[in-house]
Amino acid sequence: MRDHIHTVVGRYKGRIKAWDVVNEALAEMATLGLPIHVTELDINSAQSGQRATGADIANNAAATQGGLVDEADRRLTEAYEGIFRAFVKHKASVEVVTFWGPNDANSWRRNGRPLLFDVNSQPKPAFHAVIAEAKKSHAAK
């Protein structure tokens, strides 16, 4: 993570006034009482995409070597379930969640099938899992 931060910050040194994305910080941020906006959310389901931790956007977008992981829909679903479970847990602080694109066809990582809707804008199992997490939260009220 340290290398990633140094790479990104170094690349834009002197040109960026503020950063609008904070990763892996959802419980600590909530304690500040500030609104949390999760932006540019997607999950790359390509094998190399799941292993990539670099900050190079072009390499990350092209990370499809090895093809899609076995049971890609199941893994994507589980990943989104976990993320949205955390969002629901901290719903008092999480005000906005936006995705990196409307569907896989329009994603910068289209080959990794990272979004909730496929290339034909049909909901994937991950979409239904996100809705189910939201319903659990609503039912618990």
Key features of this structure:
single chain, 141 residues, mainly alpha, 2 strands, flat
Task: Give a quick summary of the entry.
This protein is mainly alpha-helical. The protein is built from six helices and two strands, in the order H-H-E-H-H-H-E-H. The longest helix is centred in the middle third of the chain and has 18 residues, at 72-89.
Describe this structure in words.
There is one protein chain. This protein is mainly alpha-helical and 141 residues long. It contains six helices and two strands, in the order H-H-E-H-H-H-E-H. Strands 1-2 form a two-stranded parallel sheet. The radius of gyration is 16 Å and the shape is flat.
Helical content stands at 40-55%
What's the shape? flat
Strand content: 5-15%
Number of helices: 6
First-last Cα distance: 37 Å
* Main sheet characteristics: 2 strands, parallel
- Helices and strands, in order, run as HHEHHHEH
